[in-house]
Structure formats: structure tokens, C-alpha cells
Amino acid sequence: MTEDDSAVKAAIEGELRLLTPEVRRSPELLGALLHPDFHEIGASGRVWDRASIIASLAATTEPGARPIGTSRMKGVQLAPDLVHLTFDTDNNGRRAHRSSLWRLTHRGWLLYFHQATPFTSDAE
Fold first, then answer.
1. Could you tell me the sign of the dihedral formed by the alpha carbons of 53, 57, 60, 66, in that order?
2. Burial (CB count within 10 angstroms: exposed 0-12, middle 13-18, buried 19+), residue 106
3. Going by DSSP bridges, is the β-strand pair 34-41/94-105 parallel, antiparallel, or unpaired?
4. Cβ contacts of residue 66 below 8 Å, gap of 6+?
5. Backbone angles phi, psi at 48, to 5 degrees
6. Class of domain 3-123
7. How far apart, in Å, are the Cα atoms of 64 and each of 24, 29, 44, 67, 100?
8. Which of 21, 22, 50, 104 could crosslink 65 through cysteines, CB 3.0-4.6 Å?
9. Which of 90, 97, 109 is nearest to 32 (CA)?
10. Tens digit of each residue's pLDDT (9 = 90 or more) over 76-102
């Protein structure tokens, strides 16, 4: 496995953990995967910072919820400390194209930026 492959693999593993209900419900587990300067442009158009997304996800993710479905996930290492992922999600019929930037820190790979754009089957 090349350095490029291992960096992308680490980012994908982190992204998939973020989509599980166990992590989404836990401020500690979420915080362990989010960069201190994390920010997001959500599918709703709302801009989130680290504290607001942790509070929102921890408060709204129900116990027993299913993991968010993913498809077409792929990544590329843009720099030694930066990976870009793109993928689609389906969360109970709400579909979105997604883009994430993961940065390598002394704590490992952390999600630095995320954006979601809703779409319908016709828009694929």
C-alpha cells in the first residue's frame, strides 16, 4: 500500500465512522474525529462550526438509528497532509452529494471541511 492509499483509506475509515449512529450521538466520539477548525456547509445551506454540529448531531441522532448509506466513495491525496473525499449518501430517502477534506494532525486524520448538496435521482 502506498502512502497515498493509506491516507485515503484512513480518511474513508474516519468518514464512515462519522456516519454511524453511535458516533453521531456521542460528543466525545464526534470531537475525536473533527478538526478544531472544522466547518461545514450542510445540505440545508446552513453553515456549521465544530461546536454547533457536535451539539446538533448529539441531540438529534436517535438510539437505534441506522447508519447513513453511502455510495461512490472515492478519495485523492492532494498533499501530504490533505485528503479529499467525494461520495453520495442516502439518509431515509434524503440524498446528497458530499465532499470532505481531511487533514493530518498530530492526533491523526481529522475532518476539516464538509459540504453536502441535496439531489434527486433525476439529478445524478
1. positive
2. exposed
3. unpaired
4. 21
5. -115, 145
6. alpha beta
7. 12, 17, 24, 9, 26
8. 21
9. 109
10. 999 999 999 999 999 888 899 999 999
